[in-house]
Write a structure and sequence with these properties.
The complex is a heterodimer of chains A (502) and B (127).
Chain A: E1 6-10, H1 14-26, E2 30-34, H2 37-46, E3 51-57, H3 65-75, E4 80-85, H4 90-98, E5 103-106, H5 111-158, E6 162-167, E7 172-175, H6 177-183, H7 187-190, H8 202-211, E8 222-228, E9 234-244, E10 250-259, H9 261-296, H10 305-335, E11 343-346, H11 348-365, E12 369-373, E13 377-378, E14 381-384, H12 385-401, E15 408-416, E16 419-426, H13 433-436, H14 460-470, E17 474-480, E18 484-492, E19 500-501
Helix pairs in contact in A: 2-3, 9-10, 10-14, 11-12, 12-14
Chain B: E1 4-8, H1 12-24, E2 28-32, H2 35-44, E3 49-53, H3 61-70, E4 79-83, H4 91-98, E5 106-109, H5 114-126
Parallel strand pairs in B: 1-2, 1-3, 3-4, 4-5
Helix pairs in contact in B: 2-3
The chains are: A alpha/beta (502), B alpha/beta (127).
């Protein structure tokens, strides 16, 4: 809003013009004068947005006041016009008001009377301007929102990744062309329909349903691989995460789909190659180890103490190589999707107890206290028994491996918001921050003087992670160097979900 | 009269090592270096037990085992399957993965400790 307020005085009498100018400029207002209607209209045209109020004499030679009034109204109907009526006749004042004048002031008037009338008009003018300003602001905001909306819509529609958004009731409120293409479901069958009715892959709809029930705060995305259509045709990676409002309540969920078919293809080739190489390597190594075993058992003749020592070490090395090759084969099997296919309702404590039993000797040899605690009731999970054994075998034997003599390895089991939660903590050497983010990577091993003596392939944890993810679970790690490490595995409860007494 | 054991494996070094183990325990040993040869020798050598490798290029151990068990003259010879599979993964699971059912009488991972092998063979022979 311009700060200077301008008043245009249109009057044929010089005295009036000078008088008004004197009175009004005292109050700090700008005054422009015109001595007839024509000049007045010109002034209005040339100061279009600068004039706030017009004082207009009705009785002027040439163009009459009424005529000027009409023309001003056509130029700008918002201009506030106060008519000056020479004869104080009510009729002409009424007529002017009917034509759209805001107010009138009869001649003769005192400076105060003029000020009051002008001030009232100005107040009105300021309100008018404010309203105008607010209206423009609102229009602009609405336009901005519309632009922003259309921008976001365009971005989402142009994305190569698929996007599905559902509201808190599980109804799909947004989807993009990529999602329809990837899922092979037309957009019309997605939008406005409930997740359960869209013919989505069951793993996906259950992940979406589950994300709407996630209780704990923080970012909790579920990531999984889906295969669509004929086996091996399209592979998708789906990330599903809840959307929360500022109170932390779940408003819906967002799923982003990535087409990973070409990655899968490469991965498959790589896995096949690894499997092939591993098989080819394993046969001769197994053969060498068999021969060493025969010699060490004295079947091929007397063995001296020194020879036995050397050959035993050679045998340890071949054993290490076989373990590595077996890990490689495990990994390629998991990646080929053959390893986690036999899911059944499972009590995780049974699995863990069995693994702990097998580990007791190993822990005992290092005087490590191996503890297990679980509440009396833990819900069932839907899982592959052998894979679960593999996970805890790996985590617990790692914990024992990386914990110095006399330490503690503690395994706990519990429940957390729709998940069964298992932790494996140790009082071991710990993992440095810079290594933490990478320990689940394939072939990654933490290299320190302390780990050099420990045999490993760097595949164990990546296999563990693949298995956990194949069960729609998550694995995380916390560690402090010199203090110890805790791995936390979350696995979704079985659907029927009732806990069993043990 | 010593019992006769037929070893079927395409890896001659492994055959030799297993032969030495068994001969040290006074078994008579015959060897075949492939699935097809193994089937032939099962008929000609008249073994008391067959130690059979799984992974063989011409005919794998499962197929050989199936044919042996389908032949009424050979079906009562015990078959000990030598698998090169991680001991962590149970063998039944391995066969599930391979989509194969087998009627082998026992399984053993290779490489094998001599006393374990001998013990398993003795058990099968006294059945």
């Amino acid at each position: 809003m311009p700060d200077q307020i301008n008043i245009l005085v249109i009057d044929d009498e010089l005295v009036m013009r000078e008088g008004c100018t004197r009175i009004l400029s005292k109050d700090g207002w700008g005054v422009i004068c015109a001595e007839n209607g024509k000049q007045g209209l010109d002034q209005i045209q040339s100061h279009l947005d600068q004039i706030d109020v017009i004082l207009l004499d009705l009785m002027m030679p040439g163009m009459s006041g009424m005529e000027v009034l009409d023309q001003i109204r056509t130029i700008n109907p918002n201009l506030l016009i106060i008519v000056i009526t020479g004869y104080a006749t009510v009729e002409s004042a009424v007529e002017a008001m009917k034509k759209g004048a805001y107010d009138f002031i009869p001649k003769p008037f005192t400076p105060d009377q003029l000020r009051i009338v002008v001030r009232r008009a100005l107040e009105r003018r300021i309100l008018q301007k404010e309203a105008d300003f607010l209206r423009r602001e609102r229009e602009r905001s609405l336009r901005d929102i519309a632009t922003e909306k259309s921008k976001i819509k365009t971005i989402i529609n142009c994305m190569g990744d698929g996007v599905l958004v559902c509201d808190g009731d599980g109804c799909i409120v947004l989807s993009n062309p990529a999602a329809s293409r990837m899922l092979k479901i037309p957009e019309t069958s997605l939008l406005g329909n409930f997740v359960s009715q869209c013919n989505l892959p069951p793993e996906l709809s259950s992940a979406m349903a589950q994300s709407l029930k996630t209780k704990e705060m923080g970012y909790s995305a579920l990531s999984q691989e889906l295969s669509i259509g004929e086996a091996g045709e399209i592979y998708l990676r789906a990330h599903t995460a809840p959307v929360r409002n500022d109170l932390g309540e779940i408003m819906g969920s967002v799923t982003v789909l990535q087409d990973i078919s070409h990655l899968k293809e490469l991965d498959k080739m790589k896995s096949e190659f690894i499997a092939m190489v591993a098989h080819e390597l394993r046969a001769p190594i197994a053969s060498v180890e068999q021969q060493l075993t025969v010699i060490l058992n004295g079947i091929a003749g007397e063995v001296t103490e020194k020879q036995e020592q050397l050959l035993s070490r050679a045998k340890e090395r071949t054993k290490g190589l076989l373990t590595l090759i077996n890990d490689l084969l495990d990994l390629s099997k998991i990646e080929a999707g053959v390893m986690v296919q036999y899911k059944e309702p499972l009590l995780l404590q049974e699995v863990i107890l069995k693994v702990i039993d097998l580990m007791k000797a190993e822990a005992g040899a290092k005087r490590i206290d191996l503890q297990f605690s679980a509440p009396s009731q833990v819900p069932l999970i839907q899982a592959d028994r052998n894979s679960m054994e593999g996970i805890f075998n790996n985590l617990i034997s790692n914990a024992i491996k990386y914990t110095p003599e006399g330490g503690t390895v503690r395994v706990t089991l519990g429940e957390e918001a729709g998940f069964v939660k298992a932790t494996v903590s140790d009082t071991g050497i710990g993992i440095k921050k810079e290594d933490l983010s990478r320990i689940f990577d394939k072939f990654y091993r933490v290299r320190t003087s302390e780990t050099r003596q420990i045999i490993g392939t760097g595949l164990g944890l990546s296999i563990v992670k693949s298995i956990v993810e194949a069960h729609l679970g998550t694995i995380s790690v916390e560690s402090e160097v010199g203090k110890g490490t805790t791995f936390t595995v979350l696995l979704p409860k079985e659907k029927s979900g009732s806990g069993l007494e043990i | 009269m010593p019992k006769k054991i037929l070893i079927v494996d395409d890896d001659p070094d492994l055959v030799e090592a297993v032969t030495m183990i068994l001969e040290s325990k006074n078994y008579e040993v015959a060897a075949a270096y492939g699935g097809i040869e193994g089937l032939q020798k099962a008929r000609t050598e008249n073994p008391d037990l067959i130690v059979l490798d799984v992974m063989m290029p011409d005919k794998d151990g499962y197929a050989v085992c199936k044919e042996l068990k389908a032949d009424p003259q050979l079906s009562n010879i015990p078959v000990l399957l030598l698998t090169a599979v991680v001991s962590k993964i149970p063998t039944t699971r391995y066969t599930q993965q391979m989509g194969l059912e087998t009627e082998a009488d026992d399984y053993i991972d290779k490489p094998v400790e001599p006393e374990v092998l001998v013990k398993r063979i003795e058990t099968l022979l006294t059945k």
